UniProtKB/TrEMBL annotation:
This is Metallophosphoesterase family protein. Belongs to the metallophosphoesterase superfamily. YfcE family. Residues 1-199 form the Calcineurin-like phosphoesterase domain. It comes from Alkalicoccus luteus. SUPFAM superfamilies: Metallo-dependent phosphatases. It comes from the Bacteria. One of its GO terms (cellular component) is cytoplasm. It holds the Pfam family Metallophos_2. PANTHER family: BLL5683 PROTEIN, METALLOPHOSPHOESTERASE. InterPro entries: Ap4A_hydrolase, Calcineurin-like_PHP_lpxH, Metallo-depent_PP-like, Pesterase_MJ0912.
């Protein structure tokens, strides 16, 4: 039995389509979505409907919260606030009332048995908040929030930082899925994880090439806020934020 962990699609339908195809070709039986579905990309409604159709479990990310209620002062750098608010208006305008209600009602965490001995606890950013940043190279002490949040689990999965990684701390595994639609780790390929859970649990990080030119064209065709297009195009093509 295989379970896929995906996250941070951010309205990038071209990337999501490629990942869903890769998941299907790998014989995955269940998909867990760790949040950030629609906001900050050209195809928010289309991505949300595909997530609802294909994913067995979905939890909320900070961008899902933003899509519903907007971005508050202090939640992003002041220099990015005006642009990101324009992006939020675009996203919310593309989503139906039913879709916005769905995002609003998503749970913030998931407990899932992987087999008869191992359990997964999944959150978007941290058990404490949708907005907490725990970077790849953080010290072990910063990761203790996962065990505190759910001491029963053997595996912890989170997303949010768009930078896939794996580490073991005191006999427990912590997995970051990376991002399907906006990777920040230097590779433009979509990132996700497969857990092979037939006997022991094996963690496989997947990278999937996709049609970035289609994603860039979607930005223009969708009427995405013009001031945000250069940034998203750079990330799509380079897998990193501009320096």
């Amino acid at each position: 039995m295989k379970t896929a962990l995906i996250s941070d699609v951010h309205g990038n339908e071209a990337a999501l389509d490629a990942v869903l195809e890769d998941i299907q070709s790998n014989g995955v039986s269940a998909i867990v979505m760790l949040g950030d579905i629609s906001f900050r990309g050209p195809k928010p409604a289309e991505c949300l409907e595909k997530i609802r159709r294909h994913c067995d479990y979905v939890i909320k990310g900070n961008a899902d919260e933003w899509a519903v209620r907007g971005i508050l002062d202090g939640e992003v750098p002041d220099g990015a606030l005006e642009m990101m608010r324009a992006e939020q208006v675009f996203t919310a305008g593309k989503l139906s009332d039913d879709q916005l209600t769905y995002l609003h009602n998503l749970p913030s965490s998931l407990e899932l048995p992987l087999n008869n001995r191992r359990q997964l606890f999944a959150v978007h950013a941290s058990p404490e908040s949708l907005f907490t940043v725990i970077p790849k190279h953080a010290g072990d002490d910063e990761f203790t929030v996962f065990n505190t949040g759910n001491p029963r689990a053997d595996f912890y999965a989170y997303a949010h930082i768009h930078d896939p990684h794996y580490r073991r701390i005191k006999g427990k595994s912590i997995i970051n899925t990376g991002s399907v639609g906006l990777p920040f780790d230097g590779s433009p390929e979509a990132s996700y994880v497969i857990l092979d859970r037939d006997d022991d649990i094996h963690v496989q990080f997947r990278r999937v090439s996709y049609d970035t030119a289609r994603a860039v064209q979607d930005l223009t065709d969708s009427g995405y806020p013009a001031e945000a297009i250069p940034l998203l195009r750079y990330i799509y093509e380079n897998g990193a934020r501009p320096v």
